[in-house]
Design a protein that fits this description.
Shape: globular
Number of helices: 1
Strand order of the largest sheet: 6-5-8-9-11
Structural class: mainly beta
Length: about 150
């Protein structure tokens, strides 16, 4: 164990002084042939938004994992961080990269107490087409509500 920016760090994860934890699991696949991608690098960041309209943000590295022969990360335990937390302007952000494939990103990852958030990421071959990266943006409650009204 070691300390990183005032937070206890062990098993490659920064513990952000939050007693409640949830879980994250990511599996990475080739988007065309639907086979798993071994040795993909999954990086987790904490993004903190600032400004009147959340127009600025800063990111901090949390942890990095490599997928196994099944294309999966280990079960990752993270401090709870989600839109239901009062005054929250922080979210998890995940990047996935693998040799020979375009990167993929997940924004606004929600971690709830004792709940597993699971993602299947589909990567495209580099130069397969004109796509250079893919995004998954988890909608916030406000965005879902607005979508249902219109």
């Amino acid at each position: 164990m070691m300390y990183f920016n005032g937070s206890l760090r062990s098993n490659g994860c920064i513990h952000m002084n939050n007693a409640a934890t949830g879980f994250l699991h990511i599996t990475v696949f080739h988007n065309v042939v639907n086979t798993v991608i071994e040795n993909a690098v999954v990086s987790i960041y904490k993004i903190s938004y600032h400004g009147t309209y959340n127009e600025r943000a800063e990111g901090r590295f949390i942890a990095q994992y490599t997928t196994d022969k099944d294309g999966a990360t280990p079960l990752i335990e993270l401090p709870v961080l989600n839109e239901l937390m009062p005054g929250n302007k922080d979210y998890y952000y995940i990047s996935v990269s693998a040799y020979g494939f375009n990167d993929a990103f997940i924004f606004n990852v929600q971690i709830y107490p004792n709940i597993l958030s699971s993602y299947k990421m589909y990567l495209t071959h580099t130069f397969y087409d004109d796509v250079v990266f893919n995004f998954i943006v988890e909608p916030t409650r406000t965005e879902i509500h607005r979508r249902n009204i219109n």
